[in-house]
Structures are given as C-alpha cells and as structure tokens.
Amino acid sequence: SQQGEEDPQALSIQEGENATMNCSYKTSINNLQWYRQNSGRGLVHLILIRSNEREKHSGRLRVTLDTSKKSSSLLITASRAADTASYFCATAPYMRFGAGTRLTVKP
Amino acid sequence: ETGVTQSPTHLIKTRGQQVTLRCSSQSGHNTVSWYQQALGQGPQFIFQYYREEENGRGNFPPRFSGLQFPNYSSELNVNALELDDSALYLCASSYFPLAGGVSTDTQYFGPGTRLTVL
User: Fold this and answer.
1) B90 and A43: CB-CB below 8 Å?
2) pLDDT confidence of residue B102
3) Residue A49 confidence class, pLDDT cut points 50, 70, 90
C-alpha cells in the first residue's frame, strides 16, 4: 500500500518560477526521500532527509520535514523546462512511494 | 562505476505465462529491491534482497519471486501472469552495511522493464 501522498497531483508553471510540492505520510519513518522520474523511465534520487532533520538544501532544491504533521515539502527554485517530470516522495523503511506530482515547466 | 541495468527493455506475454526479468546492480551495492509501477501510479515495493536472501516484502502474492546472485545481479520471476501485472518493473540497488532489516538509504534505479500482458 502507498504511504506517501503527494499534493498537488499536477502543477504547471512558467520557467523561472518556483515549484512547491507536498508529501504527507501516515506512519513513523526513518527518512524521507524525493525522486524524479522522466517519461515513465527509472527514478533519479534527488535528496534524502532523515527523521531528525527539519530542512535540507541541494542546489536549487529545498526540502523540509515536519514529523509532527507527518509531512514534507519539496521546493524547486528558478525552475527550468528540464525540470519537467514526475516527482515522488518515498518513506523508509520499505520505501513506500506516493502517486507523484506531475510538474510541467513551460519555456 | 557502472549504473543499474535491466533487461529486457520491453516484453509482451500472454495471461498464464511466466516471465523472468533481470537486473544488474551498481558496482559495490549489496542490496537490490524490485518495484512494480502501474501507469500513472507510484512504484509499489515488491521485495528486497540482501546477500542473496529476501529480507523484506510488500503486499505481493507468492507468484512473485526473486533471486539474487553472488555477483549481486538479480531476477524477478512472475508466474501465472494476469492482465493486472502489466506495468513498468523497476529494480534499484543500494549499499546496506548491517545485517537484518531493510535498506533505507538512497536507492539507484535502473531504467525499468515494460511488461505487457495480453
């Protein structure tokens, strides 16, 4: 069964804008990870945040984790057309993925 | 350092048949996980293998089975195929330093095998 639930299901923005995606989960976690998937191919790991961390940065990515609300957010700043993809959160253990957010960045 | 590879890329089978999908892990990784991803959905965890033994399983029936070999390549076998088994099958490798439990660290995914069951 799925654990993470991403919100929104789809997001369309202009190049240069920021994109924010949210993830909610139900049970205790060791860590939460965000992945990107292009055109139904393999997933690419973006960032991992551990349960004792609240915020993490990697390049244009910023992830927050609120374990009291069982939620996380992924912020992509200054988006590019190449960021167009589906984004998934996954909770560990057992790597349960949500249904994903489909991000479209228009040039 | 080579990445995770999967074969074949695409496969078409008929209902009731059996299928074997193959995965070659990233160099240095000792853990492999398999996922099923239906169209428009997120990946669903099937099982994970660590040092050639299954050490975690999702909500999949026994007709889904696997093997991990000493060189850390692995197979996913599905018997008695059903129409709902049509999906993208992904394998992912990782390094897990401790015995027991399920690897919870970063997983490196292969490109997937698209299985169609007619």
Assistant:
1) yes
2) 57
3) very high
Contacts with A96 from chain B: Cβ below 8 Å: 45
DSSP A12-73: EEETTS-EEEEEE--S--SEEEEEEESTTS-EEEEEEEETT-SEEEETTEEEEEETTTTEEE
Provide the sign of the torsion angle of the four alpha carbons A67, A23, B32, B75, taken in this order: positive
Instruction: Show Cβ contacts of residue B75 under 8 Å, excluding neighbours closer than 6 positions.
Output: B20, B21, B22, B23, B66, B67
Predicted local confidence at residue B55, as pLDDT: 85
Share of chain B above pLDDT 70, in %: 92
Structure tokens at B30: 């000792």
Q: What is the pLDDT of residues B27-38, one digit of tens each?
A: 888 889 999 999
Q: Is the pLDDT of residue A2 over 70?
A: no
Residue A19 region by backbone torsions, left for phi larger than 0, else alpha for psi between -120 and 50, else beta:
beta
Chain A CB contacts of B101 below 8 Å: 93
| Residue of A76, A72, A78 whose CA lies nearest to A98 | A72
pLDDT at B24 over 70: yes
